[in-house]
Amino acid sequence: MTCDLVIENAAVLTVDPAWNLYEPGFLAVRGDTIAAVGPMAGRRGWEARTVV
Predict the structure, then answer these.
(1) pTM of the model
(2) How many domains would you assign to the chain?
């Protein structure tokens, strides 16, 4: 899948009822929308113009 930005190897805390913490985790952004979030193992398959 493609997106505009991937932030990887970050501490990602979700603000949902489960309050999941992914460390290390990743966040994929497409336009102004979070397209995916999760542990680094889930990062595979995400291609981005910018990777931080």
Answers:
(1) 0.89
(2) 1
